[in-house]
Structure formats: C-alpha cells, structure tokens
Amino acid sequence: MKLKFLATAAMTLMLASGAAYAQTSTTADPAAGDPAAADKTKPLDDPMMMKPFYSDEAMTTMRSDDEIKAAWAAMSADNQKMMKDECGKTDSTKFAEFCGKIKGM
C-alpha cells in the first residue's frame, strides 16, 4: 500500500512540476532583444510581400523588370526599407536575384 501511495505521490509531483519546464518565452529566439521583432516574419520569407514580384505560385520565376518596378512602387516606404535592409543582411542565394533587382530602386 505504501508503495502505491509513494508511486502516486511521485507521479503527481512529476506532472505538477512539468509545467515549470514549459516554454516561458513568447519569442522565437530567447536571445533576441526585441520580442516583438522576433515574432515577425522576415520580409523576404513573407509570401504576401514577395508574391507581387513572382509570376508563379511557387515563386521561382520573377516577373519582368517593368512589373517589378511597378510592384515596388506600390509598396509602402516602410516595407521597401525593410526589404532592402533584409537583403543587406541575408547571405541566402535564394533571394540573390530579387535583391539584385531591388538594390538599385
């Protein structure tokens, strides 16, 4: 009987203390300084921001230069700045063509 009681008590304690090990941070990167910035999708990874520059659903074929310029002009200045800043930080070859095209805009 004592063994059952001890086992039940140990299991209860383990389950109750398990909540203490749950995630306490809401940021994607606990080392990030700004929790709000860590939760935001990077502009180059955001399909809603990138879709106007591509002609296919898979976003592998870029539109013509004129269409890219028109899509760029339709974006807010804040979004343009975010995208240019992100292009300056990324070393991914995935965005090389896109970043090359908006660099001079």
UniProtKB/TrEMBL annotation:
The residues forming the signal peptide are 1-22
Q: Which UniProt keywords apply?
A: Signal
Q: What is this protein called in UniProt? A: Pentapeptide MXKDX repeat protein
